[in-house]
Amino acid sequence: MGDLEIRAAATEDVPAIVDMLADDPLGSQRESPEDLTPYLAALERLTADPNQHLVVAVREGRVVGTLQLTVIPGLSRKGATRSIIEAVRIHADERGSGLGTQLIEWAIAESRRQGCQLVQLTSDATRTDAHRFYERLGFTASHVGFKLPL
């Protein structure tokens, strides 16, 4: 299936990233691929923050996956640094290919490289397939998450 490159996202990757974010029942309700303005502004903020790592997986010149890794220094757990994996998306053509595993393994390795002692993620309660995927990779459903829209 060709070599895979995982690299920092660039401006020209934004349309492909947004298309993947919108390509599921949840994302289709909250993303707007027809107006890239807020996404481009977000990319600028992400790029300016050294604790944010928005990456794309590229195969044969085509963006086929993405995720965001956030590194958070903290006081709890004896001053541990943790990371959060967010917005994991795989292009429909690549699902089941092992690409998701490669992206998560990249995020775990990068978290170690950044000195993190813990990697965490959240997944919408309705994404049962994703939950099984994360459990196969060694993650445990140890917490209950809460959100408050602002």
The structure class reads alpha+beta
Number of strands: 5
pLDDT under 50 segments (min length 5)?
Answer: none
Q: Element order, helices and strands?
A: EHHHEEHEHEH
Largest sheet: 5 strands, mixed
- Order of strands, widest sheet: 1-2-3-4-5
Question: What global shape is seen?
Answer: globular
* Count of DSSP-assigned helices: 6
Could you tell me the radius of gyration in angstroms?
Answer: 15 Å
Features:
five-stranded mixed sheet, alpha+beta, about 150 residues
Short description:
This protein is an alpha+beta fold and 150 residues long. It has helices at 14-22, 27-30, 37-48, 76-79, 99-113, 128-136, and strands at residues 4-8, 52-59, 62-73, 81-90, 118-121.
Question: Overview of this structure, please?
Answer:
The protein is of the alpha+beta class. 35% of the residues lie in helices and 26% in strands. It is built from 6 helices and 5 strands; from the N terminus they run E-H-H-H-E-E-H-E-H-E-H. It has helices spanning 14-22, 27-30, 37-48, 76-79, 99-113, 128-136; strands at residues 4-8, 52-59, 62-73, 81-90, 118-121. A 5-stranded mixed β-sheet has the order 1-2-3-4-5, sandwiched between helices. The longest helix has 15 residues, at 99-113. The model has no long low-confidence stretch (mean pLDDT 94).
